[in-house]
Amino acid sequence: MPMNTDRIQTSHVGSLPRTPELLAANERFQAGEIDLAGLGAALDAGVADIVRTQREIGIDIVNDGEYGHTTSGAVDYGAWWNYSFHRLGGLTPTDEDRWQTAEKRRSSPGNVVLTSFPDRRDRERFREAYEDPTAGVLAHRASVPQPKITGPLTYTGQDAVAGDIRRVKDAMAATGATQGFLAALSPGSCARVRNEYYATDEELLYACADAMREEYTAIVDAGLIVQIDDPSIAESWDQVNPEPTVEDYLDFTRLRVAALNHALRGLPEEQIRFHLCWGSWHGPHTTDLELKHLVELMLTITAQGYSFEASSPRHGHEWKVWRDHPLPEGKVLYPGMVSHSTNGVEHPELVADRIEQYASVVGRENVIASTDCGLGGRLHPQIALAKLGSLVEGARLASERLF
């Protein structure tokens, strides 16, 4: 994960729009007509195409578009998490979709009460908007049931992650890309399914850590960067109802960070980057926890790079946080310079301004321009690719001014 030497490098968070052929194959998979192996041909062609597209746009650090993470359709806010259901043993399928089913459960430490999506505090505050299908707050999505944990968690995705690695490395070789990454689920997010086996949160989290470590290790051993997807660090704040104290929430979160660091032990930091966000849905997000409360804890995660929302309307001002929280030496930031939550395509000058703001507080060598979150499943393909183009052009403009 080299730092910038003569220009601002670019990347993105992972998910990119799927091809029509891959969406059709995923639909057949969801219907039980084909298995994971049956997705192979569509994945081979799709990954080759999306890596070539990234390189043609000018993205420096590329990935497979998360094509190997099964999706329920063109709109899917949860593929980053749902893919793990097909790579873990110890799960039993259910017909419950946590986006639609209300539930509450007490978690520890911090003695917080987690609710499901319908009971989130942002949704309570804007109930009419969330329930209006024409408002654009929640786009139409297929219902995706989540399993429950009924036995010891094990990792069963060896063939799947090997396929992800092979496809992205083949595509990188074909296009001359020298830096690549693959996304993988964090223990804290893995543990959000219903648990009927482990006695405590700690047991559950460390079981998730031991299972998912196999995926992290495979990606790193292949010479790629592993991106740890962990919206739960920030997003769960809105899922705690009633609102907790910040300290109680941080106690709750520290255990999740400890489990992640356990999973990452011994792996090279320069091949690890961590992604934090406040959720993919296009809601008001007025109950997001501010970055200033999370930044020090985030920096204790064993990673060289940290990716987070930096251009959304709720978080675009938070570059100032880094004035009071110096970036440790050798670390790199991947702030989002374009957003997944709006159809407006950011002007390259705005992108350049945002890059320069971060460079002014953490140094030009430590800012890799990225996206707020994955663009696939959240934006129309034309808009998503236009945003990547604006990101690259903005980075070029900023580079002319900073180097």
Automatic annotation (TrEMBL):
<feature type="domain" description="Cobalamin-independent methionine synthase MetE C-terminal/archaeal">
    <location>
        <begin position="9"/>
        <end position="185"/>
    </location>
</feature>
<dbReference type="GO" id="GO:0008270">
    <property type="term" value="F:zinc ion binding"/>
</dbReference>
<dbReference type="GO" id="GO:0009086">
    <property type="term" value="P:methionine biosynthetic process"/>
</dbReference>
<protein>
    <submittedName>
        <fullName>Epoxyalkane--coenzyme M transferase</fullName>
    </submittedName>
</protein>
<dbReference type="InterPro" id="IPR038071">
    <property type="entry name" value="UROD/MetE-like_sf"/>
</dbReference>
<dbReference type="InterPro" id="IPR002629">
    <property type="entry name" value="Met_Synth_C/arc"/>
</dbReference>
<dbReference type="Pfam" id="PF01717">
    <property type="entry name" value="Meth_synt_2"/>
</dbReference>
<feature type="domain" description="Cobalamin-independent methionine synthase MetE C-terminal/archaeal">
    <location>
        <begin position="202"/>
        <end position="395"/>
    </location>
</feature>
<keyword id="KW-0808">Transferase</keyword>
<dbReference type="GO" id="GO:0003871">
    <property type="term" value="F:5-methyltetrahydropteroyltriglutamate-homocysteine S-methyltransferase activity"/>
</dbReference>
